[in-house]
């Protein structure tokens, strides 16, 4: 399963994009800003679970 990190400040856009990607079989993690995205990237790197795609600012 491909992993996607979504970085989107607007709550509704983040939820919508996460739901859409999940419905197509992606494992999605969503963050509201760059600080939380960096934390997510560091955490995933430590577990050797890298992201295949990063989507920023959906608008």
What does this structure look like?
By secondary structure, the chain is α/β, with parallel strands linked by helices. The chain has one domain (3-56): Rossmann fold. The protein has helices at 11-23, 34-46; strands spanning 3-7, 27-31, 53-56. A three-stranded parallel β-sheet has the order 2-1-3, with helices on both faces. Strand 1 (3-7), helix 1 and strand 2 form a beta-alpha-beta unit.
Provide a brief overview of the structure.
With 59 residues, this protein is an alpha/beta fold.
Q: What would the keywords be for this entry?
A:
single chain; 59 residues; alpha/beta; Rossmann fold; three-stranded parallel beta sheet; 2 helices; 44% helix; flat
Structural class: alpha/beta
Distance between the termini: 26 Å
Question: Uncertain regions: pLDDT < 50 for 5+ in a row?
Answer: none
Count of runs of 4 or more consecutive helical residues: 2
Biggest β-sheet description: 3 strands, parallel
> Helix and strand succession?
EHEHE
Strand content: 15-25%
CATH class term: Alpha Beta
How many distinct folded domains?
1
Globally, the shape reads flat
Order of adjacent strands in the largest pleated sheet: 2-1-3
Mean pLDDT across the residues is: 95
Number of strands: 3
CATH topology: Rossmann fold
């Amino acid at each position: 399963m491909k992993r996607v990190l979504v970085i989107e400040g607007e709550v509704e856009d983040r939820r919508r994009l996460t739901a859409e990607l999940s419905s197509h079989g992606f494992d999605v993690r969503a963050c509201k800003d760059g600080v939380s995205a960096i934390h997510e990237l560091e955490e995933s790197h430590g577990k050797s679970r890298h992201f295949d795609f990063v989507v920023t600012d959906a608008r």
